């Protein structure tokens, strides 16, 4: 392993603040956030300041978020690094909007489309530019609903059981998940649309179409380079739209909605515990509770592992949500302290072939 491969890189955090929505304006809410001009800093109320890698105020467009914060990750994908984009925040704060989790092909040229459709477009543009490499692209799409992993691309009525395994060489693997090979951007968008239509959403007092599950859309990119196309690198891009943290007194959830909310909050609490354990310098080498939930298990490589990771922390500026907003800002602040160790993911079979070839050439 070279020094380049052993680099430690912190989790990057982008703060995204949506505008006040009509409901908040009608209720007379004021903005409790102040954005420092030309600095990635936000001030809550009159005193508490938070600094992140990127800060996008309510006037920021989707293209600005993508070109500033997401593009650098995509450059790494083509070099063979894994990457993760993780949207976090309270319910109704704009996570699914930012990620593009309700995208359909009818919106193709709409400037309001989010991260996932823009990523798909960029990957195929980059692929066209690299005529010297062979590419194989595949996608999977899952949701974690009430601590069950559901395959959003499975067409069979009897959905197979999905389990999580850890491979010493390849990290976390999901056994039984549908992975579809795709050759074009419209085909990949088709998989996204299919999965989105199967996602679990429900209405609460805070959000008419609230995501009731954590969703992970994964793009796997295999590149074969060199004259004989033997050098192979495999990189994965996880695009994660987390369900929102929520308070029952605000969502007025009852019955199944309330159960879902409890399950969502439990998963996010486990994620917070993992972030705290990884980000606290005083807890170095402490036990990290990845196994406490399916969500943290699936994000094991993304947090403290082999990945370039960006968290998009979404917040509402309304003073009525100030407590939840401060919680999100603190959560994101802790995430910035996590150190990842991304490495180029060379296909082990190709690496072994190269090693044997070198041995043979030395003996000749």
From TrEMBL:
Entry keywords, A to Z: ATP-binding, Coiled coil, Cytoplasm, Cytoskeleton, Microtubule, Motor protein, Nucleotide-binding
Compartments it resides in: Cytoplasm, Cytoskeleton
Residue ranges of domain Kinesin motor in the record: 10-338
Matches recorded under PROSITE patterns: KINESIN_MOTOR_1, KINESIN_MOTOR_2
Record Pfam families: Kinesin (PF00225)
Sites where the protein binds ATP: 89-96
Chief site of localization: cytoplasm
CDD domains per the UniProt record, alphabetical: KISc_KIF4
Superkingdom to which the source organism belongs: Eukaryota
Protein family: Belongs to the TRAFAC class myosin-kinesin ATPase superfamily. Kinesin family.
PANTHER family: CHROMOSOME-ASSOCIATED KINESIN KIF4A-RELATED
Name used for this protein in its record: Kinesin-like protein
Source organism of the structure: Goodea atripinnis
Lineage: Eukaryota, Metazoa, Chordata, Craniata, Vertebrata
């Amino acid at each position: 392993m070279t020094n380049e491969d052993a680099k430690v890189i912190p989790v990057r955090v982008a703060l995204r603040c949506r505008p006040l929505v009509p409901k908040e304006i009608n209720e007379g809410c004021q903005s409790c956030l102040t954005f420092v001009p030309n600095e990635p800093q936000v001030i809550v109320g009159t005193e508490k300041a938070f600094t992140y890698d990127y800060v996008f105020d309510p006037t920021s467009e989707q293209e600005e978020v993508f070109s500033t914060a997401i593009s650098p990750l995509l450059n790494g994908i083509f070099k063979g690094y894994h990457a993760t984009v993780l949207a976090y925040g309270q319910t109704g704060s704009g996570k699914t909007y930012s990620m593009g989790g309700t995208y359909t092909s009818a919106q193709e040229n709409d400037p309001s489309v989010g991260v996932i459709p823009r990523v798909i477009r960029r990957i195929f543009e980059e692929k066209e530019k690299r005529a010297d490499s062979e590419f194989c692209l595949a996608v999977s799409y899952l949701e974690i609903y009430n601590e069950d992993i559901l395959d959003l691309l499975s067409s069979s009525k009897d959905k197979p059981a999905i389990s999580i395994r850890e491979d010493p060489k390849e990290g976390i693997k999901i056994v039984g998940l549908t992975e579809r090979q795709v050759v074009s951007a419209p085909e990949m968008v088709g998989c996204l649309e299919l999965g989105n239509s199967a996602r679990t959403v429900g209405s609460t007092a805070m959000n008419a179409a609230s995501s009731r599950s954590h969703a992970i859309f994964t793009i796997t990119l295999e590149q074969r380079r060199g004259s004989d196309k033997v050098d192979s690198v495999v990189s994965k891009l996880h695009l994660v739209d987390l369900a929102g943290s929520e308070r029952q007194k605000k969502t007025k959830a009852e019955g199944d909605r309330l159960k879902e909310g409890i399950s969502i909050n439990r998963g996010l609490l486990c994620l917070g515990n993992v972030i705290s354990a990884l980000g606290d310098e005083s807890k170095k080498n402490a036990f990290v509770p990845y196994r406490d939930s399916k969500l943290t298990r699936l994000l094991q490589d993304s947090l403290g592992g082999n990945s370039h990771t960006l968290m998009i922390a979404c917040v509402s500026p309304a003073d009525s949500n100030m407590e939840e907003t401060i919680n999100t800002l603190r959560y994101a602040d802790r995430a910035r302290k996590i150190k990842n160790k991304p490495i180029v993911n060379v296909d082990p079979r190709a690496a072994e072939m190269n090693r044997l070839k070198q041995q043979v050439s030395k003996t000749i």
